[in-house]
């Protein structure tokens, strides 16, 4: 299950976390979310207590997970910007970047890239949904008959 971290003051989603079935064997989802939020405040990822978790369908903002080996919470972006020797930059969405590994200027750049990636993913999802709807419509037998009769042009 995906949960988004909502800033109550700005009404903006800043992070997300995933709770799997294995995580909630002993604790409830609410207890896990409260624990992750408290750890985030203690470790400085979250500035104050004006945040709440809401159920979500999309992964927005930075990724927020619990590190079971060190018993703490890690906040990270779902991508890494890799700088090449020729000066170009590559965005690798297979790697994650912890927030504490980047400084202020780089953090601003990462946030801009995160916002751009969110828009790109939203547009791609919309395009896929439209293509699926068009394909479903074209498979409809009534649509095919109407095209054959000349009532509708495909």
How would you describe what is shown here?
The protein has three helices and eight strands; from the N terminus they run ββαββββββαα. It is of the alpha+beta class. A six-stranded mixed sheet has the order 3-1-2-4-5-8. A two-stranded antiparallel ribbon has the order 6-7. The longest helix has 36 residues. It is extended, with a radius of gyration of 21 Å.
State the major sheet.
Answer: 6 strands, mixed
How many strand units? 8
Give the end-to-end Cα distance, rounded to a whole number of Å: 40 Å
- Helical segment tally? 3
Enumerate the strands of the largest sheet in spatial order, edge to edge or round the barrel. Answer: 3-1-2-4-5-8
The mean pLDDT is: 78
Strand residue percentage = 25-35%
Radius of gyration: 21 Å
Short description:
This protein is α+β, with helices and mostly antiparallel strands and 154 residues long.
What is the element layout, followed by pairings?
Blueprint: E1 2-7, E2 12-18, H1 29-43, E3 51-56, E4 62-67, E5 72-77, E6 80-83, E7 89-92, E8 97-98, H2 104-139, H3 141-149
Question: What structural keywords apply?
Answer:
single chain; 154 residues; 8 strands
């Amino acid at each position: 299950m995906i949960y988004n971290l909502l800033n109550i003051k700005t009404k903006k989603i800043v992070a997300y976390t995933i709770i799997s079935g294995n995580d909630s064997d002993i604790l409830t989802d609410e207890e896990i979310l409260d624990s992750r939020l408290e750890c985030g405040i203690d470790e400085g990822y979250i500035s104050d207590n004006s945040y709440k978790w809401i159920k979500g369908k999309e992964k927005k903002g930075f990724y927020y997970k619990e590190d079971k080996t060190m018993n703490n919470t890690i906040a990270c972006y779902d991508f890494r910007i890799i700088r090449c020797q020729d000066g170009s930059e590559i965005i690798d969405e297979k790697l994650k970047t912890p927030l504490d590994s980047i400084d202020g200027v780089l953090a601003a750049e990462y946030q801009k890239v995160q916002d751009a990636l969110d828009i790109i993913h939203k547009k791609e999802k919309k395009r896929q949904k439209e293509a699926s709807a068009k394909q479903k419509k074209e498979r409809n037998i009534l649509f095919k008959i109407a095209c054959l009769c000349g009532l509708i042009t495909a």
